[in-house]
């Protein structure tokens, strides 16, 4: 035995034997880039499943998530019966699409809790909305900033303000009803899908109401044609980034065009209002309020005594043309698809129920003393209780917006057993509340009388058509009055027939809801 010591690992014949039976040698044996990528992929799939089940907890939902994308392909072409299956599955249900965990609330009370919890949630519309509407858009403001901004818009939708916009609505109805008759005549009164015509009509109505005649007819036509692209880009589930020639890419181009046109209108409105012009549209009213506020602030800054009667109800700052355009674009975004859906169902329902249409016609002629040329006015619309009931029942029976996405700002204890994690999307549902048998007996039947002799008006908690809470729809009165004015005027001037198909009562989901067959109609002038 010598006093020297040699490490066994220094012996090339010994070293391999130390690791041969070990795990590391087994893993590294034959290891290459492809095996590394496969290992990372498997790890990512396991993590994705673990994360989904962690968020899911006890919420009803698929047992497993398709790796990474979840039900994305299914969501690209949403089916109403699939949404209804979610609502029927429990108070809360869930899915996970790409990186987004989505919780759907089915019951009235769950939905109301979400609408009324601004401390936990804020409207997110959809992921692509920030890219199309602009990150600085007021609809994405939260808390006090949102409340203050909204106060400055409330005056645009008062009864007095709405009365100023009615002449524009009358002009649009006259124009498009003439087009309806001409198109039916050209088609030899053959059944024709009319949903696209209603979309164009409602786009023209919105643009004329919002920006008046600052926008030429050809621009309105282009916006009406291209708005399909914006709607498609803002579907509930879409590819999360904008890639060339995708729906979001085309939608972004169309949105940029609309913003540019509205910016031009804002500049024209500012010049006209500064010159003392009369208010003829919503943009005029808002610009006039800004000019009045600027005069008030100037007097205060100069130390001039101002009588309280001269102080604007809401002192506004000056807004740039683009800021005004962004805000008016949100009005179009909120109204276009919803009113298009409502008008499509309204005309179909009236054609299928001629007895109800006769009552609408009789009421509208009676209030005008038999003269159908009497123009719309707020007093006239106030005295059409049956027409109002028909519109409200249409909105209940076929609520245009069936769900409203919200983003969870912080962990949200939606119930005693379920807390929805921060960053998730949570969606209150409108359809189940509007079809609640306890609130609306025979809820799947169309019955306008429930709003006159029934108890429908008392079911305010179920009336979620325009939302509730701090983000309820500013234009709900405008929307209902527009539909009332439209169907009343149409009933006096035209007859129309609906050709029913097996798909007429089936529901197509395209941001809002439409008949699957796009509503086959033809129109004739009344004798």
Automatic annotation (TrEMBL):
<keyword id="KW-0503">Monooxygenase</keyword>
<feature type="binding site" description="axial binding residue">
    <location>
        <position position="473"/>
    </location>
    <ligand>
        <name>heme</name>
    </ligand>
</feature>
<dbReference type="InterPro" id="IPR036396">
    <property type="entry name" value="Cyt_P450_sf"/>
</dbReference>
<dbReference type="GO" id="GO:0020037">
    <property type="term" value="F:heme binding"/>
</dbReference>
<keyword id="KW-0479">Metal-binding</keyword>
<dbReference type="InterPro" id="IPR017972">
    <property type="entry name" value="Cyt_P450_CS"/>
</dbReference>
<protein>
    <recommendedName>
        <fullName>sterol 22-desaturase</fullName>
        <ecNumber>1.14.19.41</ecNumber>
    </recommendedName>
</protein>
<dbReference type="GO" id="GO:0016125">
    <property type="term" value="P:sterol metabolic process"/>
</dbReference>
<dbReference type="GO" id="GO:0016020">
    <property type="term" value="C:membrane"/>
</dbReference>
<comment type="similarity">
    <text>Belongs to the cytochrome P450 family.</text>
</comment>
<keyword id="KW-0408">Iron</keyword>
<dbReference type="GO" id="GO:0000249">
    <property type="term" value="F:C-22 sterol desaturase (NADPH) activity"/>
</dbReference>
<dbReference type="GO" id="GO:0043386">
    <property type="term" value="P:mycotoxin biosynthetic process"/>
</dbReference>
<keyword id="KW-0349">Heme</keyword>
<keyword id="KW-0560">Oxidoreductase</keyword>
<dbReference type="Pfam" id="PF00067">
    <property type="entry name" value="p450"/>
</dbReference>
<dbReference type="InterPro" id="IPR002403">
    <property type="entry name" value="Cyt_P450_E_grp-IV"/>
</dbReference>
<dbReference type="InterPro" id="IPR001128">
    <property type="entry name" value="Cyt_P450"/>
</dbReference>
<dbReference type="GO" id="GO:0005506">
    <property type="term" value="F:iron ion binding"/>
</dbReference>
<dbReference type="GO" id="GO:0004497">
    <property type="term" value="F:monooxygenase activity"/>
</dbReference>
């Amino acid at each position: 035995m010598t006093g020297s010591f040699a490490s066994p690992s220094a012996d090339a014949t010994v070293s391999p034997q130390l690791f041969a039976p070990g795990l590391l040698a087994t893993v590294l044996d034959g290891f290459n880039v492809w095996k590394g990528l496969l290992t990372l992929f498997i790890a990512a799939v396991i993590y994705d499943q673990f994360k989904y089940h962690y968020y899911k907890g006890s919420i009803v939902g698929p047992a497993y998530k398709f790796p990474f994308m979840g039900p994305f392909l299914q969501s690209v072409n949403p089916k109403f019966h699939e949404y209804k299956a979610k609502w029927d599955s429990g108070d809360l249900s869930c899915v996970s699409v790409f990186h987004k965990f989505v919780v759907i609330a089915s019951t009235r009370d769950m939905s109301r809790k979400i609408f009324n919890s601004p401390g936990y949630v804020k409207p997110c519309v959809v992921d692509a909305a920030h890219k199309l509407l602009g990150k600085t858009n007021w609809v994405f403001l939260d808390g006090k900033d949102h409340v203050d901004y909204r106060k400055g818009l409330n005056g645009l939708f008062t009864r007095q303000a709405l009365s100023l916009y009615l002449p524009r609505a009358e002009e649009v109805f006259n124009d498009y009803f003439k087009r309806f008759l001409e198109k039916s005549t050209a088609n030899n009164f053959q059944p024709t899908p009319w949903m696209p015509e209603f979309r164009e009509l409602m786009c023209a109505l919105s643009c004329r109401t919002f920006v008046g005649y600052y926008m030429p007819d050809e621009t309105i036509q282009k916006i009406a044609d291209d708005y399909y692209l914006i709607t498609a880009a803002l579907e509930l589930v879409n590819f999360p980034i904008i890639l060339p020639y995708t729906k979001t890419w085309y939608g972004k181009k169309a949105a940029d065009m609309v913003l540019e046109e509205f910016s031009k209108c804002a500049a024209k409105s500012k010049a006209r209002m500064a010159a003392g012009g009369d208010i003829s549209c919503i943009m005029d009213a808002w610009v006039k309020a800004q000019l009045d506020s600027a005069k008030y602030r100037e007097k205060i800054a100069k130390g001039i005594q101002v009588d309280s009667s001269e102080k604007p109800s809401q002192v506004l700052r000056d807004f740039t043309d683009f800021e005004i355009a962004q805000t008016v674009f949100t009005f179009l975004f909120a109204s276009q698809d919803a009113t298009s859906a409502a008008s499509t169902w309204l005309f179909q329902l009236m054609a299928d129920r001629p007895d109800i249409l006769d009552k609408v016609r009789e009421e509208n002629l009676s209030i005008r003393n038999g003269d159908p040329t009497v123009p719309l006015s707020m007093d006239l619309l106030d005295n059409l209780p049956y027409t109002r009931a028909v519109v409200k029942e249409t909105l209940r029976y076929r609520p245009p917006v069936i769900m409203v996405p919200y983003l969870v700002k912080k962990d949200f204890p939606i119930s005693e057993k379920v807390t929805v994690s921060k960053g998730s999307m949570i969606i209150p549902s409108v359809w189940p509340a509007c079809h609640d048998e306890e609130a609306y007996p025979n809820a799947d039947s169309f019955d306008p009388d429930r709003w006159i002799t029934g108890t429908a008006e008392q079911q305010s908690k179920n009336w979620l058509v325009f939302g509730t809470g701090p983000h309820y729809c500013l234009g709900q009165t405008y929307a209902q009055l527009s539909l009332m004015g439209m169907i009343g005027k149409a009933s006096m001037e035209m007859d129309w027939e609906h050709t029913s198909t097996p798909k007429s009562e089936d529901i197509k989901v395209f941001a809002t809801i439409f008949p699957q067959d796009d509503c086959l109609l033809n129109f004739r002038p009344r004798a």
